[in-house]
Specification:
Layout lengths: L1 H17 L18 E4 L2 E4 L3 H5 L4 H8 L4 E4 L4 E4 L5 E6 L2 E2 L2 H6 L5 E7 L10 E25 L3 E13 L2 E14 L2 E10 L5 E28 L3 E24 L4 E26 L2 E21 L3 E22 L3 E20 L3 E20 L2 E16 L2 E8 L2 E8 L3 E12 L10 E3 L4 E4 L7 E13 L3 E13 L2 E7 L5 E7 L2 E16 L3 E15 L4 E17 L2 E8 L2 E5 L2 E5 L2 E10 L2 E8 L7 E8 L3 E9 L5 E18 L16
Parallel strand pairs: 5-8, 24-28
Antiparallel strand pairs: 1-2, 2-7, 3-4, 5-6, 7-8, 8-9, 8-39, 9-10, 10-12, 11-12, 11-38, 12-13, 13-14, 14-15, 15-16, 16-17, 17-18, 18-19, 19-20, 19-21, 21-22, 22-25, 23-24, 25-26, 26-29, 27-28, 29-30, 30-31, 31-32, 32-35, 33-34, 34-37, 35-36, 36-39, 37-38
Length: about 675
């Protein structure tokens, strides 16, 4: 009944608009200005307006101005995330995963289109919610030199990038350097816990931070060389190295129990060093055929020290090394009835984490994966279709623990346009997901006097099945879409709490029955004054079903928000707000609280100055909160950060170009590794 009501409401809004004058959408380059975007089977192809491109200084700035459904952009922290936290957001430039530095140094005026994929295919990997592929023209000659920096004036927080790219004929070289820092002193965590002991009595603990400090310093330098003839071949090599340091993060916590009150002290230091070599090759074989290959080698060195004193000292250190090699190759053949793609992806990873002091063990984790797939795309009886079939294998071993997991991974997408302004789409996918490497560690880490986090070397990958139905409406000035999805996670990684005979509460992950989700959401965008003022609103209802081995948890949440953008000559004004995101997973009910962003920027020539405000009129905002719903342990936690309250940041961007001429280029690979496998 609810589905009928929602569909009727959607049609009621859209049908009166259909009666208005509708221009034909022509995809020829000279006609493309008539359509803001074109619907595709896996998402939409967006053509940013001149006003949006002229008002943008970077890829982050341009993505923010597009107001994409389900996407939250933080220009201060340089992040693009899924509002509903349903997976990662892949950012690409001409088909390749893009680094933060590349998004900052790209030239928005050279952008041809943006492919926004809200139903990523199996070739994009696992746990990917959205893909944003920015297609730009490649410069044939000239150079660009620039700086883009965002620094807060109300707290110690900033990110500054310098970049230089030079092109000559088919060659391009690029150098970028990025420095980020923060020193937050306004973080506070308040926690109320109730433990049911073995004898049946209840034991309560109140934990309230009195002081806390969180510092971070990060450096990244990247060198890139590209040799490309857009008609026949592309070769690119990229070498980057990143070094980050958290020198002394500490807190003092006031702990209150029924019998006493005392203080606990915690401290953590962390250093990471990550060099990455990325090689890419594309070759046009002729006769509508092409092959692409990509290989990425990554080394991650981590040194961690952690201590906690709640009446008795507890400390551990970790020296970690992780080595990984990822390779991928894809063959494409543009046959007359359809596009055929055949692909292979393989990876090797070895992680050695040595724990010392109060935790004494060494994890040696070996992981290999193989994935092969075939995909066809075409059009039949007026309907667009994409059909994928793949098989994956995950292998893991750690001492006597090991698994060998195989899974068939089909995917089918069908879309059908009708009445010139509507498009209906159905998507089915079966995919593979695995927990973080840290969760299969053999380590046991103490969190406080009552709780421990324990790794589970017997944790296995699991299968996810999803059914998605969507209905989209599109006209040059207004667009709207409704989406419904039912997602089934079978035998998945879920929370497990164990109470021991000596009243210790152990938290780990185990494979249990299922976590399912059903949701319906809607977005609507209206260009009230073309090229001047646009408004986007969204909202959704979400229902969660968690069925563990010894618990059942159900929850309903609501998500809504709005985005307003105005372009007034050299001025750009943006406002964004949402009510946050609440979900239940296992025995944890989590909520990211409401967010408000305001920004105003002024651009003249090669310079732009911007002012950003986060959480206005909120002195000490709650960033997130959580509840533990276990029968033996009930706990409610609130995390606040006054450093983000009324946070004001200044953006200064300068970009100088000379002799830039453009030609098109595209590549289609994405491989990287960031998992250290350390349990904390």
């Amino acid at each position: 009944m609810k589905k009928k009501i929602i569909l009727t409401f959607m049609l009621g809004i859209c049908l009166p608009i259909v009666a208005q004058q509708v221009d034909e959408i022509n995809l020829k380059e000279v006609e493309v200005k008539a359509a803001r975007f074109v619907l595709k089977p896996d998402g939409r192809l967006i053509f940013p307006s001149d006003a949006q491109k002229n008002a943008s200084t970077s890829g982050f700035s341009l993505i923010n101005k597009l107001a994409l459904p389900g996407i939250r952009v933080d220009e201060t922290l340089r992040t693009v995330t899924s509002i509903r936290q349903e997976g990662t957001v892949q950012l690409r430039i001409n088909g390749i995963i893009a680094t933060k530095e590349e998004l900052l140094s790209m030239e928005p005026k050279a952008v041809k289109s943006i492919h926004f994929i809200d139903q990523p295919g199996i070739r994009y990997g696992t746990d990917v919610a959205f893909v944003i592929d920015i297609r730009v023209q490649k410069a044939a000659n000239g150079y660009v030199l620039g700086f883009d920096g965002v620094n807060s004036v109300t707290t110690y927080n900033g990110d500054n990038s310098f970049y230089y790219n030079a092109n000559h004929n088919n060659s391009e070289i690029g150098v970028t350097y990025d420095f980020g820092y923060n020193d937050f002193r306004g973080e506070r965590t308040d926690e109320a816990a109730r433990y049911e002991l073995v004898d049946g009595s209840l034991y309560t603990v109140q934990r309230n931070d009195e002081t806390a400090r969180n510092r971070y310093f990060g450096h990244c330098i990247q060198l890139k060389y590209n040799l490309a003839d857009s008609a026949s071949y592309v070769f690119q090599t990229r070498l980057s190295t990143a070094f980050s340091r958290m020198p002394d993060n500490n807190s003092v916590c006031q702990i209150t129990t029924p019998t006493q009150s005392y203080k606990a002290f915690s401290e953590q230091k962390d250093k990471d060093f990550t060099p990455i070599l990325d090689l890419y090759f594309f070759r046009d074989l002729g006769k509508h055929q092409s092959v692409t290959a990509n290989m990425v080698g990554t080394f991650i060195r981590t040194d961690l020290e952690s201590s906690y004193n709640e009446g008795a000292p507890y400390a551990y250190s970790v020296a970690g090394n992780s080595y990984s090699l990822i390779g991928e190759a894809i063959y494409e053949n543009r046959l007359k009835p359809f596009l055929l793609s055949l692909g292979f992806n393989g990876s090797l990873k070895y992680t050695r984490n040595s724990y010392q002091k109060d935790v004494s063990l060494t994890d040696n984790l070996h992981h290999e994966s193989v994935y092969c797939f075939a995909e066809i795309k075409g059009k039949l009886f007026g309907a667009n279709y994409t059909a994928d079939i793949g098989v994956s294998n995950q292998r893991y071993r750690q001492d006597e623990n090991r698994y060998n997991y195989w899974l068939w991974r089909p995917k089918l997408t069908l879309s059908y346009p009708f009445l010139k302004v509507f498009n209906v789409k159905y998507d089915f996918e079966m995919s593979e997901h695995m927990s973080q490497m840290a969760n299969i560690s053999r380590a046991e880490i103490r969190q406080n006097s009552m709780e421990w986090t324990v790794g589970n070397p017997e944790l296995r990958p699991y299968k996810r099945t999803s059914h998605t139905f969507s209905l989209d409406f599109e006209q040059p000035r207004i667009s709207s879409g409704i989406k419904m999805e039912y997602r089934i996670n079978s035998n998945c990684s879920m929370d497990k709490y164990v109470r021991t005979a000596d009243n210790r509460f152990l938290y780990s992950k185990t494979n249990q029955q299922n976590i399912n989700m059903l949701y319906v959401n809607n977005y609507t965008r209206w260009d009230m004054v073309p090229e001047k003022l646009s408004v986007m609103v969204f909202g959704g209802i979400y229902r969660f079903f968690n069925q563990g081995d010894d618990y059942r948890h159900y929850h309903t949440s609501y998500n809504y928000g709005a985005n307003v953008q105005a372009y007034l000559n050299q001025w750009t004004i943006t406002g964004y707000a949402d009510n946050g995101w609440e979900f239940i997973e296992g025995e944890h009910l989590n909520r990211n609280h409401s967010t408000i962003y305001l920004s105003v920027s002024y651009r003249v020539g090669a310079f732009e100055i911007g002012l950003f405000c986060q959480h206005p009129f909120r002195k000490n905002p709650i960033m997130n909160s959580s509840k533990v719903l276990n029968r033996y342990l009930n706990k409610e936690t609130f995390y606040r950060n006054s450093s983000f309250g009324n946070m004001i940041s200044l953006n200064f961007a300068w970009k100088f170009t000379k002799g830039r001429q453009y030609k098109q280029m595209q590549r289609t690979m994405n491989n990287k590794d960031t998992d250290t496998g350390i349990l904390k």
